[in-house]
Write a structure and sequence with these properties.
By secondary structure, the protein is of the alpha+beta class. It has a domain of about 45 residues. The chain is about 25% helix and about 20% strand.
C-alpha cells in the first residue's frame, strides 16, 4: 500500500462524527498532478488499514479519469 496517513486537524463537532473528507485545489507539479486530501475519522468507526484502503480506492478512481 502506498498511502501515507498524516493527522487531520480537529473538525470535531461531537462524539462519533461521520468521517470528514476535505480536498483542496489540484496543482500540476512537474509530470503529475497533486490533490491535497484531508481525511478524519473516529477510531471506533474504522482503523488505519480501512482508512488506507479507502484512500487507495479513491486514488484508483481518480486514476481512471485520465
Amino acid at each position: 500500500m502506498e498511502t501515507e496517513l498524516d493527522g487531520a486537524v480537529g473538525m470535531n463537532s461531537g462524539i462519533y462524527n461521520n468521517p470528514f473528507l476535505i480536498w483542496g485545489r489540484y496543482r500540476k507539479k512537474l509530470f503529475r498532478y497533486v490533490l491535497p486530501v484531508s481525511f478524519q475519522f473516529h477510531h471506533t468507526q474504522m482503523d488505519g488499514a480501512q482508512a488506507g484502503r479507502f484512500l487507495e480506492n479513491l486514488q484508483d478512481e481518480i486514476n481512471k479519469l485520465r
